[in-house]
Design a protein that fits this description.
The complex is a heterodimer. By secondary structure, chain A is of the alpha/beta class. Chain A is about 25% helix and about 25% strand. Chain A has a domain of about 220 residues: FAD/NAD(P)-binding domain (3-Layer(bba) Sandwich), CATH 3.50.50. Chain A is globular. The termini of chain B are far apart. Classes of the chains: A alpha/beta, B mainly alpha.
Chain lengths: ~500, ~55
Amino acid sequence: MARLVVMGGGVSGHTAATFARDMLGEDHEVVVVTPNSQWNWIPSNIWVGVGGMTKEEVVFPLAPVYEKAGIDYRQAKAVSIHPEGKEDAETPYITIEYTDEAKSGETEELTYDYLINATGPKLNFGATPGLGEGTNLGEHTVSVCTADHAEHANHELEACIEKMRNGERQAFLIGTGHGMCTCQGAAFEYIFNIEHTLKEQGVRDMADITFITNESFLGDFGMGGIHFKMGGFATSSKVFAESLYAERGMDWILGAHVNKVEAGKVTYESLDGEMDEQEFDFAMLIPPFAGVGLKAFTKDGTDITDTIFAPNGFMKVDANYNAGAYENWKASDWPRTLQNPSYKNVFAVGIAFAPPHIISKPMSSPNGTPINPTPPRTGMPSAMMGKAVALSVVDMMKGKSTEPTHTASMSEMGAACVASAGKGLFSGTAAAMTVYPIIPDFEKYPGTGRDLNGTTGELGLAAHWVKHILHHIFIWKAKLKPGWTLIPE
Amino acid sequence: MASKHVNHIEPYSPQFGTMIPMGGQKFMRTCVLWQIVRFVAINIRMTILILKSHH
């Protein structure tokens, strides 16, 4: 019997663990280590953040699902990896620290034969003074990164709406809280939900809404922008995104590194090096992401964290980390098997793997401050990586292969993004975007770098319905209800 | 003559440099019959995308 340990129970980790469990049978063991007691369908946090859904509608407890599936669930956080074991025992292991009430603070060594790192991001609020402390959200802004944050955001929004009803004008600031943020899509979707909600509540004319972003142009989305096949044109996502903001009378601030947050005010540095301020009554600013801070040691206790992990804390995999300058970047720099080059029984998926470089063109202010989006790798790509690595590990555990048998390169996969505003079936609106491949490949697709037949964008009720359906089918799938394996990632 | 579907856009503002949807476009976005067609189209498109993405 061999043991697979999956660190993390988010989209990629849950996908990897459940597919591995389904395919391994009773001969092998699957263990999930995650500090969370609940699974969260994160895309729907946006609706929680405007009161369109309750927190309970976007989360469910993990323990009963894992018990039913036969997965050994440890509510704990992974602390360190020991891929060579220890001096008197060569079996590799990780150390974990329990987070559940009964065993809180207790530590344990957990051996593994195969390890999947799906630890996701550390929400690094502490990177921007005033945005928060460490991983904790500060008092001046709100967030939609977790269901609890989104619930809090809605309470703050309700208070603002009440003030507007009483004749007090309110300034809304939505966007990124640091120059190196990713996940612009979440801020993009949230600002449209805010605008839609204010309109529904009859107070839109009392609100000034501004988007602040580290993107150098609207619609970069951390993917260097996209060209959509639209109306007989290959239309830039810049035009697509600007049109959405202009139609709704919303302003935008580009190329901004928010470097300080105070009560009712952010200070930011622009790409031109200027320092400026923006006042707000309500601000939702996405924090930058970092690795969760795992350490790694050899059997004699030598710290090899720098060997296993990139400086940003994400795990190194089979990517080309020596691609050099932007002009030399290629789609083939991106990892395919997601296997760690030093330890072949260790993999990293989702946000936990270290990208070879960013996707957008690197930019910095004259002061040397880097201001550019970092690569998005949440949602659909995360789940696809989780499944591909699970399939590889299953084949390796069953002795069918000594090498990974499946790949999930972001340069060979597409992504779908549906940004939806409103909750009503006929009153909502949404933008549905598909992009293929995620990483532009100018050798394969000269011109825009992407397949225009697979890269599209459109607005309308239909996309809104798609978003509703995705919410229900992905929660159905995550709960392992009948037919869950047939639902694609 | 001003279009009833387009609000005032300040010349040379950032918003002035993009496209603004007019009545026909807005109507089609919420026309249920057309959106049912688009719903089917989006689902087909996403299915193809998923099939192309698995290796």
